[in-house]
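Example 3.2
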Amino acid sequence: FWYYYNKVVPSPRQGEKVEVWQLDLKSAMEENNIILLAYSDGNLPTFGSGFIEDAYLLYTQPDEFQKYWKNKQEIQYYARQIRDNPEYLKKATILSEDNKITLDSAIKYLSYQLKNNQP
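Structure, written as tokens:
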């Protein structure tokens, strides 16, 4: 089960929080007989949470997907570091409040900065 195409539940690695970006997407998809996207009226605007687009790119342009996935993994690595580090999380929270953006957007912004070695 992938919670909003993010968290893997239950974790395939005992005692470790695993997120979808850490998986080999093609293998993870192909080891299942069915893929079901369960959404309700309230979250239809985010239908697929990026999964549909990623799967389409994976199967139609595998080389482009590999570049995209590598970049996504790097960004998500830094995002996880921010979420797990109280000092970075506080910085993201302040950025979020000061700029009236979501905390996720602030974390993503800071992740790009860290990836590109910007303070």
